[in-house]
Every structure is written in C-alpha cells, then in structure tokens.
Design a protein that fits this description.
alpha+beta; five-stranded antiparallel sheet; two-stranded antiparallel sheet; 11 helices; 45% helix
Length: 307
C-alpha cells in the first residue's frame, strides 16, 4: 500500500510539473506574440495576397503594381494562399533562394490576417492594450484598414531582414545592444556577411513533424494554447511547421506557425508554437542553425525524421 501511495504521489507531482511547464509556455507564447510586432520596417508591396469583398468592383492596379484590396466588414475571401501548409513554407524558402521579396511576402497572411484579426480578443486576453500590437487599430473604415495592412506588411519585411542578419552573422545577438569600437569595420562585417550568404545554394530537404521534436507539442494543454492563438488572428486552424534546408552546405531548420483561412494556408509567424517549445531565440526568427543542433536534439536522429 505504501509503495502504491508513493507511486501515486510521484505521478501527481509529474502531472503538476507538466501543467506548470505548459502554463509557462503559454505565457512565453503570449510574450512572443507581442514581441514579434515590436519591430517595424518599410512597407514592401505584395502582388500575390489580396482580399476583396465578393461584390467589389475591379479597378486598375496602383503605382506599386498591387491590386486593390477593397474593404468590407463582411463577405471577405482570400484570393490566394496555398493548398497545404507545406506549400506556404516552400514558397517562402524558394523566394529566399531567388532573392524574390515579393514571393517571400506572398507566403504570409497580410490582408487576410488584418481582416480576420480579433483585436478585442487579444486585448481581453492580455487585460491591457499596447501600441505595439499589430494591428493596433480596429478596421474602422477603408482608410484605417489600409493603414493596418501596410503596418503588417512592413513588420513582416522587417522580421525577414532580422532573419537575414542572423543567417549571415550567427555570432551576434542582435536583440541586445552591441558595443562597437570601429563602426566602419562593424558595418563592413555586416556587409560581408550579407553578401556572402549565397542564397542560390538553398536546397529544401523536407519537413519534420513538430511532435517528433518536442513531446509537449501534442499535449492537450498546448493544443489549447494554439487554439487561442488561432482565435486571436481569426484563423480556422493553426499548425506548427518545421522544414529542413541546406544553405552554403550547412543544414538549418526553419520553424513557423501556418494559418488556415477558408481552406487556404499562409505563414502567420516565424518561430511559432514549436519554436517556443524548443526555446529558439526570437532573434533568429525561426531559424535553428547547425551550431544549435547539439543542445536542441541529436542531429543523427533529425536526419531520420525528415520527410
């Protein structure tokens, strides 16, 4: 009887630790969600992802060669996106390989994201309002909606730039102030790193099921966390994706959350739920470099998981 009681007590403590871990992860995901939008960048036009109400009239493209997105509080539908979450990730990496920013941007939910985002839900969830949210305003009218869209577009471009800095300079932690003695040499070092990326060498190796990388990914409490995140961005479904690729003969992983809107898939954010579970730094924007494989997981095992 005593032995049985000890076993029950150990199991109860293990369950308590699991719940506490998932609560911490939920908090980290919320912090991550807010942090991802602290950085803004210059807006970059995207010709591939547009939202229009069903009855919106056609109009000529504007000077940026971007189709009119239209505006309506109801009857919204996506005009692009991808059939599968894998296709969205592949489109992004192929765009990166070809240095095609428009294609990279088109892999993301932009107009779709803004028109479905539930600002009231996230404010209620946080219990506060922060100007760093994206969007920071409700879609009050066509003008405000257009501002929100460009805000989202610019921030994605900024985060892509953050990712490029990390890929080209692994030794720097760009989330912290970096003391510089020789500004000229520092900028030249950044320049050499960015210029030497050889993006054309990118080769997509395949995908890894996120549950194979962390045992808590399919835990019911973690799935609830993901559902709350899906509710925030107004998505029908949210999936964590992990893709392996080669760059300059080194193997990397890219993690992201991919959102489904009306049967179409778009990248919602770099890193995502699986990135938070693995403890990947926000500064890498979802990239796991070769040097991190040793402490995240055994690389030989990873090779066997690629599908």
């Amino acid at each position: 009887m005593r032995a049985g009681a000890e076993i029950d007590e150990k199991q109860e403590k293990a369950e308590d630790r699991r719940v506490e871990t998932l609560k911490k992860i939920a908090g980290l995901l919320l912090i991550l969600f807010v942090f991802l939008f602290l950085t803004t960048g210059c807006a970059s036009p995207s010709v591939d992802e547009n939202i229009r109400p069903d009855d919106a009239p056609d109009r000529p493209d504007d000077a940026s060669n971007r189709q009119d997105m239209g505006w309506s509080p109801r009857g919204r539908r996506a005009l692009s996106g991808f059939d599968t979450p894998e296709e969205a990730m592949i489109a992004y990496l192929e765009g990166l390989r070809d240095s095609d920013l428009d294609r990279m941007m088109s892999a993301f939910a932009i107009e779709t994201y803004i028109l479905n985002y539930d600002l009231e839900y996230i404010v209620d969830r946080l219990g506060s309002y922060m100007i760093t949210l994206t969007p920071r305003m409700p879609n009050t009218n066509e003008f405000i909606t257009a501002i929100n869209v460009e805000h989202r577009r610019g921030e994605i471009a900024s985060l892509i730039g953050m990712q490029q800095l990390f890929l080209s300079n692994h030794e720097h932690d760009f989330l912290r102030p970096y003391l510089v003695d020789d500004a000229g040499e520092f900028v030249r070092q950044l320049d050499r790193g960015l210029g030497g990326l050889n993006l054309q060498s990118i080769d997509i190796l395949g995908f890894i099921p996120p549950e194979e990388l962390h045992h808590l990914h399919h835990d019911p409490l973690n799935l609830e966390n993901m559902q709350r995140q899906a509710n925030t961005i107004g998505a029908d479904q949210l999936k964590s994706m992990v893709v392996a690729f080669e760059l300059n003969r080194s193997t990397y992983l890219l993690t992201a959350d991919v959102a489904n809107y009306d049967g179409r898939w778009y990248i919602a954010s770099f890193g995502g739920n699986i990135g938070a579970l693995l403890g990947i730094s926000v500064g890498t924007q979802g990239i796991v470099p070769p040097m991190d494989f040793g402490w995240h997981f055994d690389w030989d095992d990873i090779l066997g998981l690629i599908q």
